[in-house]
Amino acid sequence: MDFQQVFGKPPETQASAPGRVNLLGEHTDYNDGFVLPTAIPQGTTVQLGFSSDSQHHFYSENLNEQVSISDINHQPSGFASYIFGCIELLQKAGYTIPSLFVYVKSSVPMGSGLSSSAALEVATLRALRQLLNLPIDDVEIAQFAQQAEIQYAGVQCGIMDQMASSLADTEHILFLDTRTLERRVMPLPEKAEILVIDSGVPRTLAGSGYNQRRAECEEAARSLGVKALRDITDVNVTKTLPEPLQRRARHVVTENNRVLEVLQGVTSERFGELMNASHASLRDDYEVSVPALDKLVEILQKTEGVFGARLTGAGFGGASVALVRSGESESIATHVLEQYNQAGYNGRILVPSLGLSDAA
Ligand code: ADP
Ligand code: MG
Predict the structure, then answer these.
(1) Which amino acid residue places its CA nearest to atom 27 of ligand 1?
(2) Catalytic annotation on 161?
(3) N or C terminus of the chain with fewer C-beta within 10 Å?
(4) Cβ 110 under 6 angstroms from ligand 1
(5) Residues spanned by CATH 3.30.230.10 within the chain?
(6) Residue closest to 92 by CA, chosen among 148, 154, 53, 17
(7) What ipTM was estimated for this complex?
(8) Phi and psi dihedrals of 72, rounded to 5?
(9) Which residue is closest in CA terms to ligand 1's atom 12?
(10) Which of these CATH numbers, 3.40.50.150, 3.30.565.10, 3.30.70.600, 3.30.70.890, describes 193-351?
């Protein structure tokens, strides 16, 4: 079912936005630290048209689901909340938004940590900007998108996902200082591309583990007399802390320093070493890895053509990200998955998307 079939007329305009993967800087965002995401080839496309009744009508091709809401109605739930949030936040900012037909289709896997939610928000806002000639820039789009997710979808997220979707592309990485929002768009390391493989292990303990780590970081920062662990740059300072706070703080401090090193300009080989060091730190100091992710990352790191690999996202399951030689991600993935799945796991390639069209 395309737009015309669902809404009875063709769309007026459309816009797309990519998903993202974080290459370096894990568990640093809630410590006011630094992150380094890039866009993935898969994206979300949003098509818009004018609805003639006083209701908005949203359709998701992926869910094969349609939702109709009037402005004065209560807040919608599910996928409609992300779209409605974008619309209502623009209205609250003073823009007049007419009743709309909204058609969504996406090649970003949903709920796999590649930020299909940010892609949906950013694509929606880009399409609205285009349709209505709104004077909002890409950073404002990221800010509206983040607020839509927090206030309407009820997800307490930072701004990394939305900034990456709005400002990065597959050729560029986004350095972001999560405290000041200072940012820099930089080219991807030379002759390299991204490979993301899902471990097949669901992130069951992610919620509780995440909250515990956050609390430990806050306690460590309090003990050290700083606002956030981002304010510590010398790793020796963490030695005064009791365990496990010492190891938690050491991860955050060394991880921030790894991201800052990339900012100075590094080769693909060095970038890969920093990713490997990040994984070791997440495994040993931060203790958010699981045996499956360790196995997957270990196989990746031993494979010819891989510059470096680590777990990506909060951990406790989920996906790995690797920096690999240009043009080799598919053959490397096949080789790695053969070994990984032989060990009894059920991994699958998320990026590049094999067989699926990237254009959404
Ligand atoms: P992630 O952002 O890592 O993919 P989230 O749980 O943050 O995972 O976001 C997934 C949710 O975003 C989905 O459950 C759905 O509500 C919404 N969503 C994202 N993309 C689409 C889409 N193409 N169609 C409908 N809903 C979508
Ligand atoms: Mg999300």
Answers:
(1) 79
(2) yes
(3) N
(4) yes
(5) 3-187
(6) 148
(7) 0.99
(8) -80, -5
(9) 117
(10) 3.30.70.890
